[in-house]
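Justification of computing resources. Each target in the renewal requires a structure prediction run like the one illustrated here; the chain below, 85 residues long, is used simply to show the kind of job we budget for.
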Amino acid sequence: MSNTATIKQFLIEEFLPDLTQDQLADDHDLLSDGVIDSLGVLKLIAWVEDRFALAVGDTDLDPNNFRSVAAIDAFIEDAHQRVGG
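Resulting structure tokens:
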């Protein structure tokens, strides 16, 4: 099940208050576009851990896991499958 709407809602509330969910493309590169900086990534990771009951380990800290809405969604799905959830 896709979590893109939930992810977009968080990103818009925290980083892109002038956009709507329809305006934020699933593949928009949040890192190279400067939407999220290194502190923003930490905030995003903390939110993912809390919202989706996941532990983001050191090996998961690849920036590509948090580069776009689609990448974050894929990471969450993969992490849930790894823990059998």
